Amino acid sequence: WNDTGVNAVVQLGDLIDGCNRQADASKTALQAVLSVLERSIVRRFDLIGNHELYNIRRPELPTSGLNCFGADGLTYYAVHIGSHWEAIFLDPYEFALIGFPMDHPNYLRAKSVIEQHNPQVFKDDGPPDWFSGLPEEKHRYVPFNGSVSPEQLAWLEKALVQAAADGRRTLIFTHIPLFRPATKPKTTVWNCDELLAVIHRHTDTVVAVLAGHDHEGGYAVDPVGVHHITMNSALTANVGTDCFAILELYNDGWARFVAHGRACVESGTCGQGQAYPELLLTRGEGNNEAPLAQLVAMGFDRDVALAALESAAGDVNAAVSILSG
After folding, report:
1. What whole-number distance in Å separates Cα of residue 208 and Cα of residue 283?
2. Fewest CB within 10 angstroms: 3, 49, 253, 315, which?
3. For 191-237, what is each residue's pLDDT tens digit?
4. Among 195, 185, 190, CA closest to 230
5. Which candidate, 55, 69, 67, 68, places its Cα nearest to that of 99?
6. Of 152, 149, 173, 170, whose CA–CA distance to 49 is shortest?
7. What's the whole-number average pLDDT of the chain?
8. Running DSSP on this structure, what letter comes out for residue 233?
9. Residues in CB range of 246: below 8 A, 6 or more apart
10. Over 80: is that where the pLDDT of 125 sits?
11. How far is 82 from 8, CA to CA, in rounded Å?
């Protein structure tokens, strides 16, 4: 990253495994990983994942070494990225069964949600099968997921309004995915529908949502044209290979997701499908559209874009390089 010259690093959560807690190795494991990440010379943003919360109680997060707080001390916040982009970081475990004492109001709120949608989670007769007999649309209501509060939803609305007023395009980062076709039914935020409703009111502003959590990854464009990228876990990569991506953000409102290794693969393939070497993130356009339509959606003149495509023998990524050069 230092050699590439990135402006920021985003770590999507699950930095260490939950098994470290049982081995009484949480602090040692976290420090081992942070000692590598801290070599980055640019600012780093760490998302809160379920495995962080298996190892670290929320009151301990401020002193953990993780950079998961905004300037106001909240775990959801927005920052400027360059002069034309806004990055929004969500906390999808604000209501959750992990990270809180069992008498905490946020734990009790989460317990109420699970009791309503999937009460077998709290069975006393041995380890439950959380999904047994559960309709697929309720698979998300399990303890390794969580939800955002009404306050966070209201904050997100205001943040997107402000980004639009400032003329900034927006990327949203969340550990848990929001859009089921980009992941699995069991790995989405409990109240993902409410979050998507907010996002879909600001489709002129939001370009993409990037998430982790589902180790096998996925990608989809939702009905209003927002891109949803679920990145593969590094645990799925072969030893000695990469599993990360670099986002190139352009001032005219589009971005390019450049994968290093199997950073994102086709949804619904258990991680074994086609790996995307690049994804072009333009409003309202998927990566299966005609190349000329993609370039025009990015703001390039149609005739100039057509000439670039002809020079690039129809390769849209090569055409983008020609047009951007």
Report:
1. 8
2. 3
3. 999 999 999 999 999 999 999 999 999 999 988 889 999 999 988 88
4. 185
5. 55
6. 173
7. 90
8. P
9. 4, 6, 257, 258, 260
10. no
11. 10
Residue 109 CA to residue 129 CA, distance in Å, equals 22
| Torsion on CA atoms 109, 111, 117, 122, rounded to nearest 10 | -170
Q: Which of 15-24, 56-65, 171-180, 281-290 has the lowest mean pLDDT?
A: 281-290
Q: What number of other Cβ atoms are within 10 A of residue 58's Cβ?
A: 19
Which residues partner with 247 through β-bridges?
A: 257
Is residue 287 within 8 A of residue 279, CB to CB? The reply is yes
Which three-class secondary structure state does DSSP give residue 319? Answer: helix
Which residue in 205, 249, 211 sits closest to 229, CA to CA? Answer: 211
Task: Tell me, letter by letter, the H, E, C secondary structure of 57-90.
Answer: CHHHHHHCCCCCCCCCCCCCEEEEECCCEEEEEC
pLDDT in tens, 241-279: 889 999 999 998 999 999 999 999 989 888 888 888 889
Contact yes or no for 149/94 (Cβ under 8 A): yes
**Of 54, 46, 14, the residue nearest 234 (C-alpha):** 14
pLDDT band at 63 (very low <50, low <70, confident <90, very high): very high
Q: How far apart are CA 293 and CA 302, in angstroms?
A: 9
40, two tokens: 């980055």
Task: For residue 302, report the phi and psi dihedrals to the nearest 5 degrees.
Answer: -60, -45
